[in-house]
Amino acid sequence: MIATSTPRMGQALPAVHRERLMPLARHVNFSSGTRLFEEGGHADRFWIVRTGTVALDMHVPGRRPVVIENLGFGELVGWSWLFEPHVWQLGAETATPVRALEFDAAAVRQLCETDAVLGQEIGLWVGKVLAHRLLAARMRLLDLYAPHGSGLPR
After folding, report:
1. Which stretches of 40-87 are assigned E, i.e. beta strand?
2. Taking the chain, what is the end-to-end CA distance rounded to the nearest angstrom?
3. Phi and psi for 127 in degrees, rounded to 5?
4. Which of 13, 25, 73, 117 would be a feasible disulfide site paired with 17, CB 3.0-4.6 Å?
């Protein structure tokens, strides 16, 4: 069984690291139905949801994009910004009006390079988010397309 949500920044990063990261944030607002990014696009930013819901989706040939997971308060939207080649692996669209903190990926990567401990903490946080998202994607695709009883291996 997968956890109901990914690790939130407030849980994953100690206060000292959040204090270093927050000056790089800017407040943004999106209306419902705003496309934040597309699979294959350049991953140059990420968001922390303050209010509202963002749907992560995956392109499936011959079908509409499949919603993999819905993200809410405190959750990270986007992980591809941290890993080369910095290309989105999923798509994202606001399901409701969203208020979020937006971070410039290059600035955060630079901060991580200058502060190795902060970089390690962010890497661990994003890695945990990535592991959760991969499992969520697998489970969602199995729900939709696999024969009954073919879930997680034992």
Report:
1. 45-51, 54-58, 66-71, 76-77
2. 12
3. -60, -40
4. 13
- Which helix (H) or strand (E) segment holds residue 142: the answer is helix 116-145
User: In the predicted model, is pLDDT for residue 74 greater than 90?
Assistant: yes
Residue 3 pLDDT level (bands cut at 50, 70, 90):
very low
pLDDT digits (tens, 9 = 90+) for 83-108: 999 999 999 999 999 999 999 999 99
- Cα–Cα distance for residue pair 147/8, rounded to 1 Å: 34
Tokens 């997971």 -> residue? 69
* Residues whose CB is less than 8 angstroms from the CB of residue 19 and which lie 6 or more positions away in sequence, other chains included: none
Angle, alpha carbons 149-150-153 (nearest 5°): 115
Q: Are residues 87 and 80 in contact, defined by beta-carbon separation less than 8 angstroms? A: yes
